[in-house]
Amino acid sequence: MTNSWTDIKNTDLVVIMGGNAAEAHPCGFKWVTEAKATRGAKLVVVDPRYTRSAAVADYYAPIRQGSDIAFLNGVINYCIQNDKVQWEYVKAFTNAAYLVKDGFGYQDGLFTGYDESKRDYNRTTWDYQIGPDGYAMVDETLQNPRCVWNLLKAHVALYTPDMVSRITGTPKDKFLKVCEMIGECASPTKTMTSMYALGWTQHSKGSQNIRTMAMLQLILGNIGVRGGGMNALRGHSNIQGLTDLGLMSNLIPGYLTLPTEREPDFPTYMASRGFKPLRPNQMSYWQNYKKFFVSFQKMMWGPAATAENNFAFEYLPKLDVPAYDVLRAFELMKQGKMNAYICQGFNPLQAFPNKAKLAEALGKLKLLVIMDPLETETARFWENHGIYNPAEPAKIQTEVIQLPTTCFAEDEGALVSSGRWLQWHWPAGSPPGEAKTDVWIMAQIHLRLKELYRKEGGAFPDALLNLQWNYKDPHEPSPEELAKEMNGYVVSDVVDPNDPTKKLLEAGKQVAGFGALRDDGSTACGCWIYSGCYTEAGNLMARRDNSDPGETGAYAKWAFSWPANRRIIYNRASADINGKPWDETRKLLWWDGARWTGYDVPDIAPTAKPQDVGPFIMNPEGVSRLFARGMMRDGPFPVHYEPFESPVANVIAPKVRGNPVARVFKDDFAQFAEVASPDFPYAATSYRLTEHFHYWTKNNHVNSVLQPEFFVEISEELAKEKGIAQGGWARVWSKRGSVFAKVYVTKRIRPMLVDGKTVHIVGIPIHWGFVGAARKGFPANQLTPFVGDANIETPEYKAFCVNIEPTTGPVA
Amino acid sequence: MFPPAPNPPIAPTPAKFGEKDLIRKSASSITPASPRQTEVAKLIDVSKCIGCKACQAACLEWNNLHEEIGTFNGSYTNPPDLTPASLTLMRFTEWVNPETDTLEWLIRKDGCMHCEDPGCLKACPAPGAIVQYSNGIVDFVHENCIGCGYCIKGCPFNIPRISKVDNKAYKCTLCSDRIAVGQWPACAKACPTQAIVFGTKDEMKNWADGRIKDLKSRGYQNAGLYDPPGVGGTHVMYVLQHANTPQIYAGLPKDPTISPVVEIWKGVTKYVGFAVIGIAAAAGVLHHLVAGPNRVSEEDEENAEKLTGSDRT
């Protein structure tokens, strides 16, 4: 989230698209009901199904899954055509005026530089024109045909209301009604919040779905302001924390990146991480990259990381591929190239696509280690459960070791919420049986491996043997010790260069924040963005002061919000170019003539003059990007691409199949249904239900009572066409698998008219499996395709194709 | 935001009401407590409800009830009906507004309405099996229940259910145990969107007024409070988007009243005097009057519906 849960109360318009907040985030949804009840805010829901969120919405518009970019590009086009633009904001705080290189272009669904054989672009033309002064060239009049605004205008012109309706299936009048409601928020005194989740991420163009809405929010001037923002609702408690600490295999904590094979030494690695400002006076905060990186290395390897050895840069693995994401891991397992897998708090047999492929891959492992508080399907993948898991144990040689862990209520530490709040919690009970904390288990593995390397040596033992392990009890580092490391501490005294008697930093003390970190090895910090969470003042994550001066919803003394306890990021953009709040009734920060003041911690230096320094401090431009340069693999502007399995061809680019740069493994392509396949004519989507949390709560009796049995949802029209009865049984199958399900024939799903063709939707909840208290059932991933987003490999669960027929119940 | 539910006290807290606060007791003559305690009420704002069923879960957990894991039956309503364990139930109705031709997914939390004039209590032939406190809560006293099922027939909302395990009637207690120590009912405490709030009946009516204004401003011209006068008003009230047609909310009766048969029977008891007839005779007479077996069959339900004159379907 750019903002926080509590800030949603400040909004005028909530747009829930690419998510179902009432269903999946019922507790956070209270802030939507609060905005509605006290501010008179409106709620718009755009979804293939009439959801629980739609049930309390002011307006609902249906959309075919996988066509969000067409819809949102259409809204951007509407805003441009109807002058629903927050011009002052767009001119001052976005790259609308920046000139783009002449070589850049777009045609028939593809940008300049596409190489079909590599399924990748050469992105060198996707950038600004750089002037003789070394800065990006701009035309503040927006007259230059090569400026971002004019390129954007031309790019979205195709997405007329008629075209949007033709692609998305959203009736034109409903699309225009949504446009009208959104367009009102171009006013500086009206804001809209975007609440989204996996309904946008789980597509082969998931990143661009989100980016399109972010662009719209910038055009409306809704980023950095109260009640605005791009608010990603995270799906697991603390998945935000996991992401911050390096969830992705190419990241190290705090969104630093691992070196690749092409960066074998430290100078080469740093060469592409200079982040020189692209406009005068800009902060370009990533210029501090080296400080964060060196401090991370010092936390990891302590005295073994020295200036002489480039702070142990050699110890880091160098990636030979862009990332070892989960899809790649299972592909490698299937090929017999990955032999051991440690599965910590993860149930991939249910959670990743194409269950048959996953099961085959797990069966080729030599060792599978499961760390989990619950019994999982993955741990039992080898067990025969009839049609629910037709494994043949005699043919599987994988050794499976289950290590029971504690759950969140049995241990101590911080959970990071969607709103970036690190909230400390304390155990409410003792772990059952032999369950141990994850930290204890990992410490044992670490200490024993270290011992083995010490005794027997190995190819490159240094990285492991030199790993710093200074904990009171080496067998179980305490949550406080780990949190203090993440905050960062001073390794050696730093004296004032002007006054050698004065210590700026004193060895052994906690640093006050990431501003104190240094690139000379005198500071150590595990995760720079968390710096400030556990300082000399104590554990700020444990704060529980719910005072809220001005009732802004900031709650600045409750827990700790990264970065720097900032509650709304890009908050300098809440005021105009002169530092005056856009909306006096909803002010956040303002320039008092000498410094920035207000209710939140400013993004920019407190004394940075408002006209000089832009609010988007992480970008070398200091402004936000309507044109993403080469930062995204699939284009600087979003394009509508169909899902890999689609009931229709791409109207705007009929030759392009799926996202043209999404990675697809060879065998998986063969397992996709053809475009508009008569064998798989129905557009399927998968989703959560409020009664369950993924595959956990089916272990709980009460949750299983509330939603006991697997079902799929179809329209009355499709039910009639297929002769399927309400509550009756059906078989649903894709090119990858088949499931039996009870059927919910509902008015909440309607067939859609897409490019002149009726498209039926099949909805598939994800929660059932062959383990737990609820009735045995099929997981949705028996059907889903093995392909991910082009940028971050989130699997395409939300849009694929199936067939359906009535049947009798399964014979287990 | 309505002031949130208080957290539980740490120190032992004496109960705020008890036996001395009764105003009615089934098949018994008592002197009603006077003065009455401030009347309480639970307000269920259907327009704020997201159907998450946290209330259902909280009810099962707080009351330590064990519901069976059922099957899928073509609806999100699970279990499909109230049971002796499921004292509250989210009922989901897909309703197409004939005026706008748009779908509305109406989600109503069903359960005991705690009528000011409780039909169950009036129909109950077992002395002291059903009581009403002066704050309005209607509670079942299970040790006195004989499992005859007349409370079901007396109830215009079809709420109580007889347990096959102990043959006693069960329904929502409004968490009288929690309210007695200053807490909100478990369902209200668990509700994430304040679709359920709790307070005095006056507070709830005032709060409902504000909600109804908001709904009217959003085009729900018939938004209103459900506090049916036919049963003297209720201590569980609804804010409905379409208060003119409560039936669309899974058969919430439009104008609930106590069955005339029960009212007549009440007259008879006054005249003859319960004490001399004895429980068995009383049960026999009532049995004859309603002409149904003790075990509640579907046919019985239908008869009860006819008798109560409700227009639920």
TrEMBL record, chain A:
Originating species: Aquabacter spiritensis
Family statement: Belongs to the prokaryotic molybdopterin-containing oxidoreductase family.
SUPFAM superfamilies from the UniProt entry: ADC-like (SSF50692), Formate dehydrogenase/DMSO reductase, domains 1-3 (SSF53706)
Record Pfam families: Molybdopterin (PF00384), Molydop_binding (PF01568)
Broad class of where this protein is predominantly found: periplasm
GO biological process: anaerobic respiration
Presence of keyword Calcium: no
Domain Molybdopterin oxidoreductase: 1-381
Localization, UniProt: Periplasm
Entry keyword set: 4Fe-4S, Iron, Iron-sulfur, Metal-binding, Oxidoreductase, Periplasm, Selenocysteine, Signal
Cofactor(s) demanded: [4Fe-4S] cluster
Name of the protein in question: Formate dehydrogenase (Quinone-dependent) catalytic subunit
Domain of life, source organism: Bacteria
Automatic annotation (TrEMBL), chain B:
Listed CDD domains: FDH-N
Chain sites annotated for binding [4Fe-4S] cluster 3: 112, 115, 120, 155
InterPro entries: 4Fe4S_Fe-S-bd (IPR017896), 4Fe4S_Fe_S_CS (IPR017900), FDH_Electron_Transfer_Unit (IPR051555), Formate_DH_bsu_Proteobacteria (IPR006470), Formate_DH_C_sf (IPR038384), Formate_DH_Fe-S_su (IPR014603), Formate_DH_TM (IPR015246)
Cofactor note: Binds 4 [4Fe-4S] clusters per subunit.
GO process annotations (BP): cellular respiration; formate oxidation
Pfam families for this protein: Fer4_11, Fer4_4, Form-deh_trans
The entry's keywords: 4Fe-4S, Cell membrane, Electron transport, Iron, Iron-sulfur, Membrane, Metal-binding, Repeat, Transmembrane, Transport
Gene3D superfamilies per the UniProt record, alphabetical: 3.30.70.20, Single helix bin
Coiled-coil ranges (or none): none
Binding site for [4Fe-4S] cluster 4: 124, 145, 148, 151
Every 4Fe-4S ferredoxin-type domain range: 40-70, 103-135, 136-165
GO CC terms, sorted: plasma membrane
Residues binding [4Fe-4S] cluster 2: 59, 172, 175, 187
UniProt subcellular location: Cell membrane
Cofactor requirements of the protein: [4Fe-4S] cluster
GO molecular function (one): metal ion binding
NCBIfam families assigned: FDH-beta
Protein name per its UniProtKB record: Formate dehydrogenase (Quinone-dependent) iron-sulfur subunit
UniProt lineage: Bacteria, Pseudomonadati, Pseudomonadota, Alphaproteobacteria, Hyphomicrobiales
